[in-house]
Design goal:
473 residues; Glutamine Phosphoribosylpyrophosphate, subunit 1, domain 1; 7-stranded antiparallel beta sheet; 6-stranded antiparallel beta sheet; 17 helices; 22 strands; 34% helix
């Protein structure tokens, strides 16, 4: 999971790109980068948060009326600024590219590309490979046109297995954006005056005053020309399978993805989770969310159960999202710094903790211990998503089975492992019903069900697990 943005128009765009990256910072905090074009490509990349990677002098350097940006959350690619995006190629026109997703068949594509075209992929980033694949496709065409560009994207679709939303800045031509045939990763665009902005989440368009046009459709490519015209083409037709974990955790609650309000989806998750709690007849005094993503779920759940909702855990706003940190030891280390219990609210109470998910269980156990140390009489736990059991090959840092506490353990064993009085999971049906709307009813739920819209063969799975290492529960 990463965040991408592209802006093109009749004025300097670096400020809008920078602000967009700040708004979608939740999608990646490992590194950030911006490329603009004036009479040349201007690039600045750095490790850490957007505010750390860029200073005022950097934005003054990033001249031009077109540019793209990226915030990085690492999955398979290595750490360090050398893997930060965007990447630039000087052929055939000069292209800069950034993407969100994961290429499953990375190794075989890299080997074939290097053998066939003598291009060398220096980094371990999927984005550099994708950039060179696009460049190679574009070199096959005699002259530039939107139709020729869409043919090049078609060649990409035919080669790549995996999920991807992409923005590419083409020298003196415009900005290309496209979304994989299954639409697993989000991408949306809007317009303000004579400027276009394409970005991972709608909240950036709303905040910066762009009128939302629509989501980029699965298998669609859009091109924003320097002359101010928009060109679109639906290139591939597959069954739309957006990632359901976007609605559970990743996306901001004030975003709308594929016409579905993330906040409304989380309220619905709370209602459906309350039904599971009622079945168990658990006696609870207060409902406490694990901030921030589970707040709407907990509010809705408390209303359904007619139980007091309380902010029993305070979050240090200066600590980033621990889920997207690349090392489990770092995640655990920061829990007590990130979260602090309100003892006056918790002491002597039967507390229901609500969180968006349970991955490895170690973080959940530490949060439970915080509540116990604050004097809770009982601690119950509810997850707004079903048990996570299967690796994600599409860009979420859950890529080996050994990472999931629910993979080989029954409910009672997980309850004991995280040391709670009861544990309640959302049902698969409750999850899908909460998120679905009239137009989108099919989702990628592979991490819960093992039903993958895009299959990975044994060699590809072995590569992924070797790259990440099998982690202990």
């Amino acid at each position: 999971m990463c965040g991408i943005v592209g802006v093109i128009g009749n004025k300097e765009v670096a400020g809008n790109i920078y602000d967009s990256l700040l708004i979608i910072q939740h999608r990646g905090q490992d590194a950030a980068g911006i490329v603009t074009y004036s009479d040349r490509f201007n690039i600045k990349k750095g490790e850490g948060l957007v505010r750390d990677a860029f200073q005022e002098e950097n934005l003054n350097f990033l001249k031009g009326n077109a540019g793209i940006g990226h915030v990085r959350y690492p999955t398979l690619g290595g750490m360090g600024v050398e893997n930060a995006q965007p990447f630039i190629s000087n052929t055939p026109y000069g292209i800069a590219l950034a993407f969100n997703g994961n290429i499953i068949n990375f190794d075989s594509l890299k080997e074939k590309l290097e053998n066939d075209s003598r291009r060398i992929i220096i980094s371990t980033s999927d984005a550099e490979l994708l950039l060179n694949l696009l460049s190679a496709e574009m070199e096959k065409k005699p002259a530039f046109s939107p139709d020729f560009l869409f043919e090049a994207v078609k060649g990409i679709f035919e080669k790549i297995k995996g999920s991807y939303s992409v923005v590419a800045l083409i020298k003196d031509k415009g900005i290309l954006a496209f979304r994989d045939p299954y639409g697993i990763k989000p991408l949306i665009f809007g317009q303000k005056d004579n400027n276009f902005c394409v970005v991972s989440e709608s909240v950036a368009l709303d905040t910066l005053g762009y009128k939302i046009e629509r989501d980029v459709q699965p298998g669609e490519a859009v091109f924003f020309g320097t002359e101010g015209k928009l060109y679109t083409k639906k290139i591939s037709e597959e069954k739309h399978c957006p990632c359901i974990f976007e609605y559970v955790y990743f996306a901001r609650p004030d975003s709308t993805i594929d016409g579905i309000s993330v906040y409304e989806a989380r309220l619905n998750l709370g209602k459906n989770l309350a039904k599971e709690i009622k079945k168990k007849g658990i006696k609870i005094d207060i409902v406490v969310p694990v901030p921030d993503t589970s707040r709407p779920v907990a509010i809705s759940l408390a209303e359904e159960l007619d139980i007091k909702y309380r902010e029993g855990l305070m979050k240090n706003r200066y600590i980033g999202r621990t889920f997207i940190m690349p090392h489990q030891s770092k995640r655990e280390e920061l829990i007590r710094i990130k979260l602090s219990p309100v003892k006056e609210i918790i002491k002597g109470k039967k507390v229901l903790l609500v969180d968006d998910s349970i991955v490895r269980g170690t973080t959940s156990k530490k949060i439970v211990q915080l509540i116990k140390d604050a004097g809770a009489k009982e601690v119950h736990f509810a997850s707004s998503s079903p048990p996570l059991k299967f690796p994600c090959y599409y860009g979420i840092d859950m890529q080996t089975r050994g990472e999931f506490i629910a993979c080989k353990r029954a409910l009672e064993e997980i309850t004991e492992a995280i040391d709670v009085d009861s544990l309640t999971y959302q049902s698969i049906k409750g999850l899908i019903d909460a998120v679905s709307n009239q137009k989108v009813k099919n989702f990628c739920t592979a991490c819960f069900t093992g039903e993958y819209p895009i299959k990975a063969d044994k060699e590809e799975v072995a590569r992924i697990e070797a790259a990440r290492g099998c982690k202990n529960i």
